[in-house]
Amino acid sequence: MSKGGSEIIKILFVTTEIAPFSKVGGLGDVAGSLPKALKKAGVDVRVVTPAWPGVLDKAEALGLKLTKVSRHVYASYNWEIKQAEIFKSEVDGVQIYFLKADDYNGDMYPQQLNFWTASPFAVFCLQAIELSKSINWTPDIFHCHDWTSAFLPCALAWHRHYRQTGLKSIMTLHNVAYQGVLEPSPFIEASGLEPWSFNSSTMEFYSQVNLLKGGIVAASAITTVSPTYANEIQTYESTRELSGVIYQQRHKLRGILNGIDVDYWNPASDKLISKNFTLDDMRGKWQIRKELLNKAGFDPETQDPVVVCVSRLVDQKGFGLVIDAIERLPKLGAKFIILGSGHEWIENALLDASAKHPDCIKLFKGYDEPLSHLLYAGGDIFLMPSEFEPCGLSQMISMRYGTIPVAREVGGLKDTVIDVDNPDGGNGFTFLTYDTDGMLWALDRAIARYKDKDAWNKIIARAMTEDFTWDRSAELYKNLYQEMANA
Ligand code: ADP
């Protein structure tokens, strides 16, 4: 793109997960939906992602046409030439390049990071830089996401082949708690980074390689996924100690709120639910509610509100509070249905509670996309008491289906859930301090309000008409790209 911004700007999204092929959490949703909105806003955006096991099969099962690019992509790493086959497809007008190689045959996200488990992520970043040679298209900016592609800005700054190319990158922080930390040896030697580049003002952090720190320091710009989280990550407790680094780099930090794919998450057309519904005709929702109650083994005619939760079962999501409150939940006059998997102690505590209170608490253990739609659509209340929450998509999805969030005022939850007791009304029930009583207080208010049908319907109407599209945020990203290209 020329200076002045007259040509269409070219952006390569570099992401290790993307919905619907390899989604693990919110990053997958964002990578699957933001490019579509950017394309609509006039950006030439393309995506590169590893073909993890099963990804190409999934693409084919979804009926996508996959074309093999005639040239492979090559990158040098650990004194070897690492090559990958390139499979191209188009989703909603966005070109996606899947890189297939032995490097991407293992588990998507390793439990433990070391030289061997970190190498696929470094190789992926180097191949993303090299991709332009094989596809005859050169991006103006590489848009990287989280620690898994944070090596790319590091390579543009400190790699012996790339540090003088002048290529630009953006690092988007979806969750600063995951940083990609490993021993420096033999990673630094194998990676091709200049040996002098491993120091405390670059990617070294307490004698370890910290890929996210490197990406934050090296990228031309940093964004994060909500304005409130952009402020929070400059303070100690929300970043596992990286706050000082982020504070130093705050001149290039912006908080841009995530949206959701409102075509996919649409109660009026969702194919994964048995009945569709709209604000004007909610009969489908009440039927799905019965289906959900049946599936959970509860009385389908219950008048108690159905509190649902779709989540990774990890501390971040506030399960410390839920488990602490578990013996008090049956007395609240609600049914609780949770879908998720994660830490064993949380899974076990919820399974125990399900066994002890079979008419009130139910855990569906696992990751299940169709079942998540049943919960979003069939629930009355969505519980999200996160300890920290960079943006959070589940609260926006649930509102779209008329399921009212009970959420903590933190990160992106604070930017999207407004308490109904505000003078101007709101779309949910919030509490501020991370404690069990606070959560129960908000839940109690929601359960009491549910009994007032007129009041509840007004809250549903507000929630279902909130604008959670990507349109506004896509414009903000586009402006940032243009500023960077013109700088
Ligand atoms: P995070 O990225 O921190 O996990 P988000 O709220 O940003 O949280 O996004 C979570 C996404 O993952 C949502 O689309 C949610 O529906 C989905 N999800 C989480 N757990 C499950 C599960 N067990 N089954 C199906 N979908 C899930």
Characterization of the model:
It is a single chain. The chain has 487 residues and is α/β, with parallel strands linked by helices. It is built from 18 helices and 19 strands. It has helices spanning 26-40, 55-61, 115-130, 132-135, 151-158, 187-191, 211-218, 227-232, 243-248, 283-296, 319-324, 344-356, 369-378, 394-400, 411-416, 436-450, 453-464, 471-486, and strands at 10-14, 44-50, 67-68, 73-77, 80-91, 94-100, 141-145, 168-173, 181-182, 204-205, 208-210, 221-224, 253-255, 306-313, 335-342, 361-365, 381-384, 404-408, 429-431. Strands 1, 2, 3, 4, 5, 6, 7, 8, 12 and 13 form a ten-stranded mixed sheet that branches. A hairpin with a 2-residue loop joins strand 10 and strand 11. The longest helix has 16 residues, at 115-130. The structure holds adenosine-5'-diphosphate. Adenosine-5'-diphosphate is lined by residues 25-26, 29, 310-312, 339-341, 367-369, 372, 391-394, 397.
Write a brief structural summary.
Helix content is 36%, strand content 20%. It is α/β, with parallel strands linked by helices and 487 residues long. The radius of gyration is 23 Å and the shape is globular.
Lay out the secondary structure:
Blueprint: E1 10-14, H1 26-40, E2 44-50, H2 55-61, E3 67-68, E4 73-77, E5 80-91, E6 94-100, H3 115-130, H4 132-135, E7 141-145, H5 151-158, E8 168-173, E9 181-182, H6 187-191, E10 204-205, E11 208-210, H7 211-218, E12 221-224, H8 227-232, H9 243-248, E13 253-255, H10 283-296, E14 306-313, H11 319-324, E15 335-342, H12 344-356, E16 361-365, H13 369-378, E17 381-384, H14 394-400, E18 404-408, H15 411-416, E19 429-431, H16 436-450, H17 453-464, H18 471-486
Parallel strand pairs: 1-2, 1-7, 2-6, 7-8, 8-12, 12-13, 14-15, 14-17, 15-16, 17-18, 18-19
Antiparallel strand pairs: 3-5, 4-5, 5-6, 9-11, 10-11
The structure holds adenosine-5'-diphosphate.
